[in-house]
Amino acid sequence: MKSIEIDDDLYAFIASQTKHIGENASQILRRLLLTEEREEAPAAVSAPQTVSVEPENVAQAVVEDSQEQLDNKVDVSPEVSSTEEVVATAPVDANNDILSQVTAEALSGYTKRVDQFLFILGEAHRLNQGKFAAVEAIKGKNRTYFAQSKESLLLNGSSTNPKQIPNSPFWVVTNNNTAKKISMLQNVLLTLGYEQNIVETLVSRFS
User: Fold this and answer.
1) Is the separation of the CB atoms in 14 and 29 below 8 Å?
2) Per residue in 7-35, pLDDT tens?
3) What's the pTM?
4) CA 46 to CA 41: how far, in whole Å?
5) What is the layout of strands, in order, in the sheet containing 146-147?
6) Fold of 92-206
7) Please, where in the chain does CATH 1.20.1380.10 lie?
8) Which of 3, 108, 141, 200 has the highest count of CB atoms within 10 angstroms of its CB?
């Protein structure tokens, strides 16, 4: 093995010609000088500095310089770093989901109207957990319809018969007639952003 002295611009040129990790200086120079035609190297911009490079250290230096060049060139924006990320954050079309869940067959499994009412509310919550709290704004003249505790509903009306919406932290008053339950369902679905035709379909299945 021989030690050689090379100028800075030549060293940089050799480093820039690395094609794969682990390629040493001898392999790079052999490929460039013996098997490929190359253009004349650009003239040095600044005065060269003489450095002493041990052959066994050239390969590692070349790899480090090449990696630094790649790091400087690659600029990946976090907002578009992967397709999976974009897909994961895309809004879910809850309109179709609720129609496929609240079917006439599913409702027929409940013999009591109040249980059907709670089932629909439970599905609406499951598909819209992040914004379901907005339904607490739906109120009557002298009564609160929705709350996150049974006690809150008992304090805001008499004979409210509060029941918990399935698989949710929310409670709803249930001692009202079918017409009032339909009106409450319509307000809930519209508050959650469902389109009018979806609301009408769901209400027709309940009524």
Assistant:
1) yes
2) 777 777 777 777 777 777 777 778 778 76
3) 0.55
4) 14
5) 146-147, 171-173, 162-164
6) Replication modulator SeqA, C-terminal DNA-binding domain (1.20.1380)
7) 92-206
8) 200
